[in-house]
Design a protein that fits this description.
Rossmann fold; DNA Cyclobutane Dipyrimidine Photolyase, subunit A, domain 3; 3 domains; five-stranded parallel β-sheet; globular; deoxyribodipyrimidine photo-lyase activity; FAD binding; flavoprotein; Crypto/Photolyase_FAD-like_sf
């Protein structure tokens, strides 16, 4: 019996049916399109069974599946090692073409290269598309063709290129939905995947709060954030729609979207930053790496209210306000002299919007070891940050209910810690 000739569209970090480049291209193919998502054991095996991000992915896939069912199609969900899953698929179907959107992280690049090689041995045409960024890898470079390693000139070139073609094209996938393969695949439950519901949930995004973003973004007590970051991370929203919208509404918010692409191209062009300092001169710093002090930082019991409130917010919700992220990261690296990789790993475990490139980039910025870093002698004073950005203590009381009942003393005195950090950096920076 002959196999069904089909095209596959492989969803990964693009969990939506609208304005999806790879999907749009797949729907133009000559064969019915099977939408596929693989729960990758290589990723899942390292996660707790109640990981909120897996739950969010599953919920997002359920919404996609409901949309597909309305047009007589459905989502094929598989779980396992990616190569084994694809081998199973090509044994069952005559896979003429495969489309997917590019992912720029080192693991994803290696995975996609291996799958491409496997599929091409079966004469399958493999198409990778740019979807999660406006400009990728080496589309924004210096005059000599080398990648930018400083944000401001990168941003200026990015804006110049964007404005010359604005707004960027958005893709009408719905006009081609009739090309989906007619099916009623079983939709695997969260339990079948080996996970359970988490008490932590991803919040819906809200663009209406962005109009005054430049005025309110530094004040954690004001609930003025869009909650977009997890949605960008998993692609439940289109970056093209967001950028076109932000370009008209708020330049500061647009700058944050450009930071995201800056860090992505840094990771792509300099993959060593995933685990090593961008600036090798900082490799000689002698970190204290005290495990007990790290534990106090993790649990939000440092005695510095803004640091503790931020860590408790992270532990309880999976979110942390951006201004507070800078404060807690600086505290770990400078006050406690614990190397940034420890903090990066903890954020990777807890953040709902965890994005490798941004997490590494921001931690190295805080530590002073990155490509576009804060100078090593900049040491945030958590008490001054509290007075400037949460003067009435609204934010800290939300996350530290015992604050007014005799809050504990700081675990380290700021002036001493600052002097110690600067001396340690000076002594450790390699000439």
């Amino acid at each position: 019996m002959s196999k069904q000739a089909v095209t596959f569209f492989w969803l990964r970090r693009d969990l939506r049916l609208e304005d999806n480049v790879g999907l749009f291209q797949a729907l133009q193919s000559d064969f019915p399109v099977v939408p596929l998502f693989i729960f990758d054991d290589a990723i899942l095996d390292s996660l707790p069974s109640d990981d909120a991000r897996v739950g969010f992915i599953h919920d997002s896939l359920a919404k996609i599946n409901t949309e597909l069912q309305e047009i007589g199609s459905s989502l094929l969900i598989k779980k396992g090692k990616t190569a084994a899953v694809w081998q199973e698929i090509i044994n069952e179907y005559d896979v003429k073409e495969v489309f997917y959107n590019k992912d720029y992280e080192p693991y994803a690049i290696a995975r996609d290269t291996a799958i491409r090689e496997l599929l091409e041995t079966k004469n399958t045409i493999v198409n990778s598309c740019k979807d999660q960024v406006i400009f990728e890898a080496l589309e924004i470079t210096k005059a000599d063709g080398l990648p930018y390693t400083v944000y401001t000139p990168y941003k200026n070139k990015w804006l110049e290129k964007y404005n010359s073609n604005a707004p960027v094209t958005e893709f009408d996938c719905a006009a081609h939905f009739s090309s989906f393969y007619k099916s009623s695949f079983e939709f695997l439950s969260l339990t079948q995947i080996g996970f359970v519901e988490s008490t932590i949930k991803v919040k819906p995004h809200n663009l209406t709060k962005i109009a005054n973003y430049h005025e309110t973004r530094d004040f954690p007590a004001i609930d003025s954030t869009s909650y977009l970051s997890p949605h960008l991370r998993f692609g439940t929203v289109s970056v093209r729609k967001l950028v076109n919208w932000a370009a008209k509404k708020n330049a500061v918010f647009l700058s944050e979207l450009i930071w995201r692409e800056f860090f992505m191209q840094i990771l792509y062009n300099f993959p060593k930053v995933m685990t090593h300092n961008f600036k090798p001169a900082y490799d000689g710093i002698e970190w204290r790496n005290n495990e007990e002090e790290f534990k106090r930082w993790c649990t939000g019991t440092t005695g510095y209210p803004m640091v503790d409130a931020g860590m408790r917010q992270l532990n309880e919700t999976g979110y942390m306000h951006n201004r507070v992220r800078m404060v807690v990261a600086s505290f770990l690296c400078k006050h406690l002299l614990i190397q940034w990789q420890w903090g990066e790993a903890y954020f990777a475990e807890k953040l709902l919007d965890y994005e490798l490139s941004a997490n590494v980039g921001n931690w190295q910025w805080a530590a002073g070891t990155g490509c576009d870093a804060a100078p090593y002698f900049r040491v945030f004073n958590p008490e001054i940050q509290l007075k400037k950005f949460d003067e009435k203590g609204i934010y800290i009381r939300q996350w530290i209910p015992e604050f007014d009942l005799g809050y504990g003393q700081p675990m380290v005195e700021h002036a001493m810690a600052r002097d110690r950090a600067i001396a340690t950096y000076k002594a450790g920076i390699l000439k």
